[in-house]
């Protein structure tokens, strides 16, 4: 028995030390660590740290990048990269997903500023906010730049939904505060979004930890996916709710559409090849969504009555009468912060298992839903 335990320990150590060491691509400066799923960033390991590249999604030629040099050498100089000394100790996050990555790395105390911290579900972060250790730096065009300057962070993790939003951070950049654009939300593959933990890990010089963490997560996801029944007739799935007469639905190659596919469901707009959301009229959806088995993610509603308050025409919508409705807002705080969009990015296996349980309840009859609840 001792020999078996010893062998298990040896195998675990082999996995740990090899997680990010295999299949590196040598370059003139260092070695590129290829991603398994993520397409929006690149990690290049160099002697004093890392060179990170983030795809500039607004570049018309689609080959531009934001470049960052993460260095343990405080004397580092570069003409083409933003320089950030690592490991960082003070950061500002403009998205709840950013804080989730940092929390998973066990580096929560480094967070000193968050956009709309009242929406954070994480109990440790909420506690630090209430204790005054984390500051509210505002949101969108109401960001408090003076408060960020007072924090004097090592890095601000930002995101840009358009050119205007990215250019708004130029003030901080001009004042010498590094701003790093994080495009995790553009990844269409669920594991691709989770893989951004490797990107965040570089700022704390914890890449090996992140690689081991991700490999474990990937294995859990693949195991669940492989257990999905392979039925010819897959349950048909509709997503979201209309807003002011427009029904925004995930594209057929979007993040959530791929979750539905991996969970053995058939997304009714799967033939749309887009990864971005698509806008349809409510009449179009009424026509296309007659034979639906499941209706998921109807915004923030908690009951069927609330669905009718959005648009009373939905009373005559066939899925309202016959489909099983589930929403991803089981884990919400008092301010309305939804943990699905926070910790869910690092728990794709739990989301997948929720969907498997919804679509094929007989296969997971002892499992309680984690992010989802039934809407009655």
Structure description:
This protein is α/β, with parallel strands linked by helices and 376 residues long. It has two domains: 23-219, Nitrogenase molybdenum iron protein domain (Rossmann fold), CATH 3.40.50.1980; 227-374, Nitrogenase molybdenum iron protein domain (Rossmann fold), CATH 3.40.50.1980. 33% of the residues lie in helices and 19% in strands. The strands form four sheets. It has a six-stranded mixed sheet, covered by helices on one side. The protein has a five-stranded parallel sheet with strand order 9-8-7-10-11, sandwiched between helices. α9 (207-226) runs parallel beside α14 (348-359). The longest helix is centred in the middle third of the chain and has 20 residues, at 207-226.
What is the CATH class name of the largest domain?
Alpha Beta
The helix content is 25-40%
Number of strands: 19
* Overall 3D shape: globular
CATH-defined fold name of the largest domain: Rossmann fold
Distance between the termini: 52 Å
Strand proportion, as a percent range, falls in: 15-25%
- Total number of distinct structural domains: 2
Mean pLDDT: 90
Largest sheet: 6 strands, mixed
Which value, in Å, is the CA radius of gyration? 22 Å
